[in-house]
Design goal:
172 residues, alpha+beta, 3 helices, 7 strands
Amino acid sequence: MEQSESVLASDDVTKLLPALLSARKEITPVNKGGFNKFDKYAYAKLEDWHSAVMPALLTNGLLLTVSTATVTNLEPRQTKKGGTEHAIQVDCAVRLWHVSGQWIEVRGVGHGQDRADKGVYKALTGCAKYLYAQLFALPTTDDPERDEGVGETGPPRASTPDKKADEMEDLL
């Protein structure tokens, strides 16, 4: 398999790919079990991603591991109220293992910020969720670049239902 910096794989993936296809057909849409009270929106927690993905992986002889290569402190950021938020960048990888020993890995970057000590955890969680979405070609309504409605005080935005896995087969 051709290697790039963001996607790596074992020399042979002939057993892994059919298992991945089978698992992908079984993966359920990711629910939004979290709610941001400040900005008033629903979001998918990391455990929501696990719940959607893990049962299908395990029944198909697949296991997912997450690793962190680097953690970088970025320049602190000032809040509108004059406080300080500590910004963090993490470089992570998600590796999908098959019981045969074959694997495929996707790498990415996550950012997080917090006024105390939670920035690194936010960055790690965000990176892991992003890499899950990339590895399994999972659509999400949690668009991190979406600006509409951020900071509004009205009711939470409604989420758009995700398509079923069998309707998304062309993405694999």
